[in-house]
Write a structure and sequence with these properties.
With 207 residues, the protein is mostly helical. The chain has helices spanning 25-31, 77-89, 93-106, 111-123, 127-140, 145-157, 161-173, 178-191, 195-206; strands spanning 33-38, 41-47. It is globular.
């Protein structure tokens, strides 16, 4: 039967080892199926019945030279996005931004890439550009709390207080982490000199 195994923190292009005991090794060699999922989202899969490299042991073939890393143009969209994340973590922000744009060239409404570029535009104080990325993300999924939170932060920075509040409340309503959104809402209330409202909201951020 299917067995779920927790994975440690995944690092793009890194290596994670997970072990599991099996009762019948020979049967496992023929029937083993490995899937990597985040929630219901399938990131990767491998089947002993149809191994990618013709090797049913799910290990590198003895004596076989390791294959060269894929060029970005050969990567699937999700692989390309994760490559961009890796570049960003290594401090290569310009390279990462170019990769996220390449992702959008292949999937114009890729939410994660749009949000990465929205944050980048926000940090550059290019709020109009950030709002453009947010609008495209919302067109893909209007109930994603991540999008609404980023929208709230950007609108707040642009001093569009009403839109910021609406977006941040939406982020909470759609199930996003409430504390960061409450903190943003509390700071907006302080800026607007609504101090009692701010105290109430900030108490909720700490709870």
């Amino acid at each position: 039967g299917a067995r779920e195994l927790p994975l440690p923190a995944l690092r793009p292009l890194g290596v994670v080892k997970v072990g599991a005991a099996v009762d019948d090794l020979e049967q496992a060699r023929k029937e083993l199926v490995v899937e990597v999922r985040v929630g219901q989202r399938l990131l990767a899969s491998w089947s002993a019945a149809d191994p990618i490299d013709g090797n049913p042991d799910f290990v590198a073939a003895a004596g076989r030279a390791a294959s060269a890393p894929k060029a970005p143009g050969q990567m699937a969209v999700e692989e390309l996005f994760l490559y961009g994340v890796e570049q960003e973590r290594d401090g290569e922000e310009e390279a990462a931004a170019e990769i996220y744009e390449q992702v959008l060239g292949r999937d114009p409404r890729h939410v994660a890439a749009l949000l990465k570029l929205a944050w980048r535009s926000y940090r550059a104080a290019d709020f109009q550009r950030a709002e453009g990325y947010i609008a495209r993300a919302l067109a893909r999924d209007g109930s994603d709390p991540r999008i609404h939170y980023v929208a709230g932060v950007v609108y707040r920075a642009a001093q569009r207080w009403g839109l910021a509040q609406d977006a941040l409340w939406a982020a909470i309503r759609y199930g996003g982490p409430p504390a960061p959104a409450y903190a943003q809402l509390g700071e907006i209330a302080i800026h607007r000199k609504r101090y009692e409202e701010a105290k109430s909201i900030l108490r909720r951020a700490r709870s």
